[in-house]
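DM from R.C. (forwarded with permission)

"hey, sorry to bug you on a friday — could you get me a structure for this? deadline for the figure draft is monday and I only need the backbone to look sensible"
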Amino acid sequence: MRRNSRNRKRNSKNFSNLISYIDTKKFILFMIILFLIFLILFVCFKLGSINRSNSAFNYEISNLDTENISNSTQVSTSNEVSSNTVSDDSERVNNSTTFTIAAIGDVMCHNTQYLDAYNKSTGEYDFSYVFSDIIDYTKIPNLTIGNLETTFAGEAVGYSNYPTFNSPDNIATSLRSIGVDVLSTAGNHALDKGFSGLSRTIDVLNENLIYTTGTNKTQEDQDTILYQYVKGVKIAILSYTYGTNGISIPSDKPYCVNLIDKDLIKSHIEKAKSEDADLIICCMHWGVEYQETPNSEQRELADFLFQNGVDIVLGNHPHTLQPMEKRTVTLEDGSTKDGFIIYALGNFMADQSDVDTRSSIILKLTITKHEDNHILIDDASYTPIYMYKNTSASTHKFKILDMQKTISNYEKGIDTSIGKSMYNTLKSQLTRINDILGT
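My reply, with the result:
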């Protein structure tokens, strides 16, 4: 009986101890769970704060990127691509900004060139291979301008050579792919295929996002200034030609080609200034073919352009290089400004026989708009190029060479495919270019 009593007491004590032990474990477990809950809540709170912070940061970056894109995108007004609207102040810059402009010479296409670009298996034309060596010099600058010496009147009209040019549309596509933004279309070949050819040329270029200046489908187009915006700087681009190779301008469409007429030029310059252009570029189709020096008319017109407010003059038509110069222009009010002119850029792509018509340059201008809106032309440099024709090749014979790189590669034995004769030609042409333009 006593044993049972002791056993009951001992069992009761053991049971109490077990209950106490279990309660302690529950308590500890409860505390652990509570701690974990607080830890999870704390971590979630911190992560939420970080995400909110990142969202704000990303928003700021997004806004910054949008602003940068807005400032670097070329927003233009032209004949077909967009309407004649002046940018609002948000697209302008109020502090100093530096940008680059590239300029190339005549874009021509002889029958040898478009036959070389034709792919019999596809029935298509592709000129992209011509530009592979020089693409960086035209694509990297903020704005690239060229001069068109052919038309895109369409295959139905028939592709043709000198004296009345009509070329495959793919030239426009290839030019855009290497970064060409604007083509001056006021030239002596503008009406080679009549007004319909002129109109279709504008359409083809616009479809390829290349803006045109100098030829027009309507009177309103002629009265419209082409603007390009580079980092917020508003650039007006004008274009004029001495004539159209004796082809009469349609009497009912006198506006279709901008001729070199001082009254017309001055009216366009004044309009550009009244619409707050920061920089005015004028493309001039002038001079005497195959002459390496400007004539008296070119020099007189250059003075006229600078005195009336043009900042940069890009000359073409002679098919060979002519000198360039930077000058300080004194205006009527006694103020001064920078001016730059190259009288002729020569041929960019062509298949003319004279060796002097095969060498040219890609011009690069570095320009700064300062806080007081004053424009300075900081630097003018150039890359010598040569239209190479590999007569031993069955196709893809043509290639625009970076002359200095090609000479260097030949001398180092990296690429001797051009041969000794062409190497010597490139050396002599490089000397000629430096003699005309300076180093």
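R.C.: lifesaver. The chain has ten helices and 16 strands.
me: no worries. Confidence is low (pLDDT under 50) at residues 1-16, 47-93.
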